[in-house]
Protein 1
Amino acid sequence: MDYKAQLLQRIENRSARVGIIGLGYVGLPLAVEFAKAGFKVLGFDVSKGRVAQVNRGESYIGDVKTEHLAEVVKSGHFEATDDFARLTDSDAVSICVPTPLRKTRDPDVSYIISATEQVRKYLHKGVLIVLESTTYPGTTDELMQPALAETGLKVGEDYFLAFSPERVDPGNPRFQTKNTPKVVGGTTPACLEVAGALYRTTIDQVVPVSSTRAAEMVKILENTFRAINIGLVNELAIICDKLKIDVWEVIEAASTKPFGYMPFYPGPGLGGHCIPIDPHYLAWKLKSVNYNARFIELASEINTAMPNYVVQKVTDALNSVERSVRGSNVLVLGAAYKKDISDVRESPALDVIKLLQERGANVAYSDPYVPDLHEEGIDLASVPWEGRLAEYDCVVIVTDHRAFDFSRVAQEARLIVDTRNATRGHAGLNVVRL
């Protein structure tokens, strides 16, 4: 039987059933887009709470509006389950599970391995499997394909295997799943053809590449580029500070060059699910071929040290008004890793809070998007800031949320350490910037 032709036909007429493993920041938006395109979608997640929320039509992801989720659930195009035996009902399966780092900075691919085992257990002829989780080049053909080959089915004929890196940017008002170009690499030409056909039904632009390894490397390149350039500008901030130069003025002037320059901005460190993590996947992989990724290691060293640099700026600022860190009341504005979202994954604000607490400061934080923090030993609830800034010896700005009126912050706070240049343009000798 020609399983490729059969699956292509089912994709074209929307009779193909799509399974999404992992209903987080990547999986849930993708599932909703496939459902809106007319497919019957079954979402898989180990969290019974998430499964129940999805089936009630309640979104827990900021980029997915509850009304949009409720609409596709009510229409019968989307449901969720924790029963992986139902993978036998799927014609295409997208794996969107986390890929964190271990404490040793080695890749933790246990979620991919677990998902692959579930797929292997229920693998059947005529199904497309796509890995979307960010990982090191070679994961699809070195880890997934051998496991699936144990079933006796032949890739490219009996089933199809591809890699397509997620490109989710939480809170981005312009680019979401549908209008962000989708890179796709197949294990075989037939795998690429089938995977490309599936995504073209839902994504505005599909970008085919020659292999799964190339597709895996694309995502690593994108985030390594950002990590290294952020590391560069963070070091530039330290250099400018030592030379008594305003780094923000330098960046603003350099940004007027219409060619050969792209602005990056310093901050308290790296956060999120990609930039602090993905480059380490490549660095780890390269050790297997006896190569040291020096740019990646150096950028990581600089970016990882930024929370300590911020805390040193707080210490110096308090010393300038004859206060010690120990016993001082410090308010951190912002907890999420970027503005106007609730995502605290790898947020440098967490490191800043912990470091201040270790030095004896009485730390509070304010973030309307993050009502409470129970991360890495931190147990705090967000506090209101309006009309309360006089209670604090120092305010540390670690995000540029639109929820904060920074002109008022500059007027009301006694002392400000500004890591995001949020108060730029507002008068005040009490503002200390990176």
Protein 2
Amino acid sequence: MPRRRVLLLSTTTGYQLRAFTDAADQLGVELLYATDRCDTLDDPWRDRAVPVRFHDERRSLDAILREARRSPLDGVIAVGDRPTVLAARVAEALDLPGNSPDAAAASANKRESRARFAAAGLPAPWYFTLPTRASIPEAAADPRVRYPCVLKPLGLSGSRGVIRADSPEEFAAAFARIRALLNRLDVRAARTGLEDVLLVEGFVGGAEVAVEGVLTGGRIQIFGMFDKPDPLDGPFFEETIYVTPTALDVSTRAAVADTVARAARSLGLWHGPVHAECRLDGVRITPLEVAARPIGGLCSRALRFDAALSLEDVLLRHALGENVAGYRQAPDASAVMMIPIPRRGHLKRVEGEAAARRVEGVVDVRITARKDQLLEPLPEAGSYLGFIFAGGRTGAQAVASLRQAHERLEIVIEREIAVRA
């Protein structure tokens, strides 16, 4: 009997996909990768991935369908925001469960998400869009602007380019900074079609919670909720710590789950992984985003299921049509820190890893940035420095372990050398 086969679409072949590879090996499932790797080299990563370009959906879809004709696919998963639309088109073409291309595109577009949330009667801040070519003084004087507000690109993720402004002067500075980011070669090369517009919206206060789950035929199942103990009030919105299970009471958890379900329906999402972010300000729950993909980076390692299953295990089973309703989050507290990048420069080394691992409760320390890699803090940052994982009887214990471990790390960064023209 041939092995079941799942298509995994991603922007790159990297550490996030290794968890899926390990899960697939355990399940006896074959993974077919489709990534935006170089298509002129002969399998540079030795992963036999189908080379695709997410901005060229027709040719990319044709390439994947040619491979599917050679060996049929049983399921599709998108990792990251960029691959979600192509994943939807593949599922549609092969008559596999998935989201519509329209819903996938809406989930990855902050303007469209805002419009659909508001149309569904969900709490939403005021918002409007501006072309990045607009006059900055005129934009800062726009009568629609109220303070505090937040400026953000439409298509970037991970808080990249998201800046709070409390005055016209801060608005102008934020606008200029985002415009410069969107004009960078690495951002323009992605060709999302969303590089020439930015979103302006009212700042939403309160605690922030992340929600991980899956949709099956339009019905949502919540796997877990993460609290974010560090305040996210700006001017930038660097997420550092996720801890689960959430400390929210039962009724608030239910209200968050209902909000995420309504938000997913408003986007038209139907089948597959869901990662959502919400703000809680008193009894008001505001959905910030509902993405048609799993949590990013290595953060999924902080969400464990009974029988030591990983999120990737469960998502692969779901993609293959298995009923995953019986899988439950493990009861012990678990937390992850996305190690903050202290300043821009080239990474030379990280000292104190062994000492950090010796902190009680620490499960692992993973430095994912490479030596001499150029690092940038938010709002320009496009990658992580690394991750620390910890567990404990309570969320507070797990978070305390993360903070102690982080204190023992020394990140040695060499500033860039200015080159005169």
